[in-house]
Specification:
Elements lengths: L7 H5 L3 H5 L1 H13 L4 H15 L1 H4 L9 H5 L1 H13 L2 E2 L5 E3 L2 E8 L15 E8 L4 E8 L5 E2 L9 E2 L8 E8 L4 H4 L2 H8 L4 H11 L5 E2 H8 L14 H6 L3 E4 L3 H9 L9 E9 L9 E4 L2 E5 L21
Parallel strand pairs: 3-4
Antiparallel strand pairs: 1-2, 2-3, 4-5, 5-8, 6-7, 9-11, 10-11, 11-13, 12-13
C-alpha cells in the first residue's frame, strides 16, 4: 500500500522554520521534489523493517521478536537505505549532503524517541519515525538547538527533542500510511492456520486463501514460504495460482493486466512486488450489483461466503506494468 498523499503545504502550513531558515527550506523542497507523495520513502521504511526481520531465514514478522542489537542498529540501516535510494552525497560532518547542507538522519520506532548526538547541534536533522503496529510513518526536518532539547543523561550524552517543541519540526510527511505488514495484522487464528503447515507451498496456499482481497507484499510471501524459490510457489504450473484455481481463486500480480482486473473487481490494485488474491464465481442474473470482469470467455464477480466453489478463470498473459 502507498502512503496517504499529504501535501507539503498542508503539513507545514504556518511553520516559521521554513521562512526563517533558508537552508532548511532548501533541503525540504529538494526532498519533496525527489519524492512528492512519499512513495519511495515509505517503501524504504517497509523494506528496512522487513530486512531486519529477515523472514525468509527466521520466519519472523513482528518487531518485538527482534534482538536488542538488531533494534539498536535499525537507525543505521534506515540511514544507509535512504542514502542508497535517493543517492545523497556523504555529509562533511553529518550523514548526508542535501541541497548543499549537512543533514543528520535519526530514526525511531517510538515517536519522539530520536537520539540526537551532541555534535548535531546547529545542524539540520532528518527525523524519521515508523511504527509497524500502527502502519504509520513520519519524516521531518529540525535545526538542532539546545533550547529544543532534553539534556542527555546516558553514557553517550545523546539528547532528545522536548515534546512541547516537536511542533518546530518542518514535516515532509506526517502520519502517512506505511505499507501494511499483512502477517502482523492478520487475525491470529488465520495466521496460526497459515503457519500450522510444514510445507512452504501449503503455507502459501493458505495465506492466499485466508488473506484475500488484501495487498500481500513479496516479503510476506518470502516469510511464509521460507524457500529460495518462493516466487515459483506463487505462479501457475504447481504454485498457488494453479492449486487455488480449483477453489475459484485468482491471484493477481503487479502486471498491468492484473492491476486492471483488480480495479474492475473493486479490489486494491497490487503495486510493485505485491499480490492480491480473491475468490470469484461466474456472474449470475442476481449479481447485478457486484463489480464484474470479463475473463476466459465469461463474466466473473467476487464470491461471497455463501457462494458455492467453482473453478476460477485463467488470468491473461503478463504485460509489464506502466512506470
Amino acid at each position: 500500500m502507498l502512503p496517504l498523499d499529504f501535501s507539503a503545504a498542508h503539513n507545514i502550513a504556518g511553520n516559521a522554520a521554513l521562512l526563517a531558515d533558508s537552508e532548511l527550506a532548501a533541503v525540504h523542497k529538494h526532498l519533496h521534489t525527489l519524492d512528492p507523495k512519499g512513495h519511495r520513502f515509505a517503501t524504504v521504511l517497509r523494506d528496512t523493517i522487513d530486512q531486519l526481520l529477515n523472514g525468509e531465514v527466521t520466519g519472523r514478522y513482528d518487531w518485538k521478536t527482534l534482538f536488542k542489537t538488531e533494534k539498536t542498529h535499525a537507525g543505521t540501516i534506515v540511514e544507509i537505505n535512504l542514502q542508497r535510494e535517493f543517492k545523497f552525497d556523504d555529509g562533511v560532518a553529518m550523514d548526508y549532503r542535501i541541497a548543499g547542507s549537512d543533514v543528520d538522519c535519526k530514526y525511531s520506532q517510538q515517536f519522539g524517541g530520536w537520539m540526537i548526538p551532541p555534535e548535531a547541534r546547529g545542524h539540520l536533522c532528518l527525523l524519521v519515525w515508523a511504527d509497524d503496529y500502527k502502519s504509520r510513518w513520519s519524516a521531518g526536518l529540525l535545526r538542532i538547538e539546545d533550547k529544543w532539547l532534553n539534556l542527555g543523561n546516558n553514557r553517550d550524552m545523546k539528547l532528545t527533542v522536548k515534546a512541547e517543541h516537536r511542533d518546530k519540526i518542518a514535516w515532509l510527511w506526517r502520519d502517512a500510511e506505511l505499507p501494511v505488514n499483512v502477517l502482523l495484522h492478520m487475525n491470529p487464528r488465520d495466521r496460526d492456520a497459515v503457519f500450522a503447515h510444514s510445507s512452504g507451498q501449503t503455507r502459501l496456499n493458505e495465506l492466499f486463501r485466508l488473506a484475500e482481497r488484501r495487498r500481500i507484499g513479496r516479503n510476506v510471501v518470502r516469510t511464509v514460504a521460507q524457500q529460495k524459490d518462493y516466487m515459483k510457489r506463487v505462479r501457475g504450473n504447481g504454485g498457488a495460482r494453479s492449486a487455488l484455481r480449483t477453489e475459484g481463486f485468482v491471484i493477481m500480480g503487479d502486471y498491468a493486466s492484473h492491476q486492471k482486473i483488480a480495479r474492475q473487481l473493486g479490489l486494491p490494485a497490487p503495486g510493485e512486488g505485491e499480490f492480491v488474491s480473491a475468490r470469484v464465481i461466474q456472474a449470475k442474473p442476481h449479481h447485478t450489483a457486484r463489480p464484474r470482469v470479463f475473463l476466459d470467455d465469461a463474466w466473473w464477480v467476487l464470491a461471497e461466503s455463501g457462494d458455492p466453489k467453482e473453478e476460477g478463470p485463467l488470468l491473461p498473459k503478463h504485460t509489464v506494468a506502466p512506470q
